[in-house]
Specification:
The chain is of the alpha+beta class and 283 residues long. The protein has twelve helices and ten strands.
C-alpha cells in the first residue's frame, strides 16, 4: 500500500512559519511534543528536545507537565508515549464532525470540476452504501438514490473500500459469496485480488458497467487518522461519456476531493502521485 503522508499536510503550522514568543512558546512546544509522539511513538527527552527545538531541560519540564495532566505517560525506560487523556480530545473532535456535512463542500466542488454526479459511499455488510450525492446538471447524467446499496465488488466505491479499508471488509465479501448482476462484476470477482492490488498501486478505482451496464465511475478513499479508508468519494458518469471526460481528469478530481475530506475529518491524506437519460447511477 502507498505510504501515508504526514497528517498535518495541507494545514498551516504556526510553529513552522514563525517562532512563537513569550508564554506562547511553551504552548507551541507542548503541542509539537504531542505531535512528535503521535508521529513516532515512544521518544526519550533528548530526542524530543531535538525535534521541538528546545533545551533538554525544557523538554523534560514540558513532558512532566503533560504527564501530570495525563496527556503523556513515562515508560520504565524513561521514554514518553501519548497518554489516555489524548483519547478524550480525540473523541470530542470526532463527535463534532459529521461525515456527510464535512464532505458536502468537496462533493459540490467535484461536481463543478467534472460536470458529473459526485457521490459519497460507506461499506456495510458487503455492500457499498450511498449516503450523499451532488447531482450533475447535465441533461444526460447518472443519479443514485441516497441509502441505496450495491455489492462492493460491482462498483468503484465498493472496490475502493475493499482496497483501502479494514481487512475485515474483504474477509466479509469472501465469506459471503452471492450472485452478481453483470458479467463484468462476475469476472472481476474471479480476479479480485489482482484488481485490488492495481487500485492500491494507483490510489483510485475505475468501474465500467459493473452494476449498471450504462454507468461507470472513478473513486478515491477517504481515510481516518491511521490511513484506513472509512468512506469513498466518486465521480459517477454515464459509461458512454467516461473516456470522453477522461480517466486521468476524473482521477485527479476525485483524489483531490478525497484529500480535502480526509483533512477535514482529521485523517491521514495520501497525495495524488498519478493522474495530474437519468439512469440509476452507481459508479
Amino acid at each position: 500500500m502507498t505510504d501515508h503522508a504526514d497528517p498535518t499536510d495541507g494545514f498551516e503550522l504556526a510553529a513552522d512559519a514563525r517562532p512563537a514568543t513569550n508564554g506562547l512558546a511553551s504552548v507551541d512546544r507542548s503541542l509539537r511534543l504531542l505531535e512528535e509522539l503521535a508521529r513516532s511513538g515512544d521518544l526519550g527527552v533528548t530526542e524530543l528536545a531535538s525535534r521541538i527545538g528546545a533545551a533538554k531541560a525544557t523538554a523534560h519540564r514540558l513532558a512532566k507537565t503533560l504527564e501530570a495532566r495525563g496527556y503523556v505517560v513515562r515508560n520504565s525506560n524513561a521514554s514518553y508515549r501519548l497518554g489516555p487523556r489524548c483519547l478524550y480530545l480525540a473523541r470530542g473532535a470526532e463527535a463534532s464532525v459529521d461525515l456527510r456535512t464535512a464532505a458536502l463542500p468537496a462533493l459540490e466542488a467535484l461536481r463543478d470540476a467534472t460536470g458529473e454526479t459526485a457521490q459519497l459511499t460507506v461499506f456495510d455488510a458487503g455492500d457499498a452504501v450511498y449516503v450523499e450525492q451532488v447531482v450533475s446538471v447535465k441533461p444526460v447524467r447518472s443519479v443514485g438514490e441516497i441509502g441505496s446499496r450495491a455489492p462492493a465488488p460491482c462498483v468503484s466505491g465498493g472496490l475502493t473500500l475493499l482496497a483501502f479499508g479494514p481487512s475485515e471488509h474483504l474477509d466479509y465479501v469472501r465469506r459471503h459469496p452471492r450472485p452478481l448482476p453483470t458479467e463484468t462484476a462476475t469476472q472481476r470477482l474471479e480476479l479480485l485480488s489482482a484488481e485490488l492490488e492495481l487500485i492500491r498501486s494507483r490510489g483510485y478505482s475505475v468501474n465500467r458497467g459493473g452494476f449498471n451496464p450504462e454507468v461507470g465511475g472513478v473513486t478515491a478513499p477517504i481515510r481516518d487518522a491511521s490511513g484506513v479508508a472509512i468512506a469513498a468519494v466518486s465521480a459517477c458518469v454515464p459509461l458512454f461519456r467516461l473516456d470522453a471526460v477522461g480517466i486521468d481528469v476524473l482521477a485527479a478530481a476525485v483524489l483531490s476531493a478525497a484529500r480535502t475530506i480526509t483533512q477535514q475529518l482529521g485523517g491521514d491524506p495520501v497525495p495524488a502521485t498519478r493522474a495530474a437519460t437519468n439512469a440509476t447511477g452507481r459508479p
